[in-house]
Amino acid sequence: MAVAKSRKSRSRRNMRRAHSALTAAALSVDMATGQTHRRHHVGPDGYYRGRQVIAKNAVTEDENEE
Known about the structure:
Strand content: 15-25%
Order of helices and strands: HEEEEH
Helix content: 10-25%
Number of helices: 2
Strand order of the largest sheet: 1-2
């Protein structure tokens, strides 16, 4: 079993972890609707690059009326 021969200093430990930080997601504003969404992803209203690629589901509206 692998066991460290000597203790690693705080400096060496932190240098190893220096590249582990998370970055914020890149955001874009849709041309047609002006909504903010993650880059290269469809927005919450179904628009991608100014075109509607996913239509709103009319079935869910009908189910709520019943």
